[in-house]
Write a structure and sequence with these properties.
With 192 residues, the chain is α/β, with parallel strands linked by helices. It has six helices and nine strands.
């Protein structure tokens, strides 16, 4: 979390992998800040399904706007300046964080990429790993939670269909501008 002033009408940079610590870290960050209506700028390769859902629901409760970008700090003659660069990646569960925004914008140079959810400890060599009935139950339960969340956030079944059709041993699928609209990941063509 990149700190903003107590009144965060600018933006909050959400960078990195979503872990079990992320919702708690966000709550600590948000404690003394007015984040209602803030823009959350995402730059993440995803992470934990259930923790991303919890974080996304929290973003929605703030009435946040979401977008994809990287926060860059630069020293200028006027002092340190911070800006958002649109060349960034939002992958895997980050896409569902993007969906949590009340308003959602994806710059043309940003990359939004999806794939199936999988057992995290076996994603590196998913084909060679073995799985139990308990493992299958966990994945199916999480897909159900993700489906409910997707519809609660105003996403479409097309988003789930696109994501769930890409196994972990294939390259992530980068969503086209048309797919971003089809899935309701984009709700506006400009961010203020």
């Amino acid at each position: 979390w990149v700190a903003c002033q107590p009144d965060c009408k600018g933006w909050v940079a959400a960078v990195g992998i979503v872990t079990s610590e992320s919702p708690k870290a966000f709550e600590e960050f948000a404690r003394d800040r007015q984040l209602g209506g803030a823009t959350i700028v995402l730059d993440s390769s995803g992470g934990s399904v259930n923790d991303s859902i919890a974080l996304g629901r929290r973003f929605r409760s703030l009435g946040a706007l979401t977008t994809v970008g990287t926060t860059v700090r630069a020293q200028t003659a006027q002092g340190e300046r911070t800006r958002v660069e649109p060349e960034a990646y939002c992958e895997s569960m980050c896409v569902f964080l993007l969906l949590s925004g009340k308003t959602r914008y994806v710059p043309p140079s940003a990359h939004v990429r999806v794939h199936q959810i999988w057992m995290g400890d076996r994603a590196d060599d998913a084909r060679a790993a073995s799985y139990t009935a308990q493992d299958l139950m966990i994945v199916e339960r999480d897909i159900g939670r993700l489906a409910k969340y997707t519809f609660d956030m105003g996403g479409t079944g097309d988003l789930l269909s696109l994501a769930l059709s890409v196994p972990p041993w294939e390259d992530l699928h980068e969503l086209s501008r048309g797919e971003l609209r089809l899935t309701n990941l984009v709700t506006t063509d400009a961010v203020s």
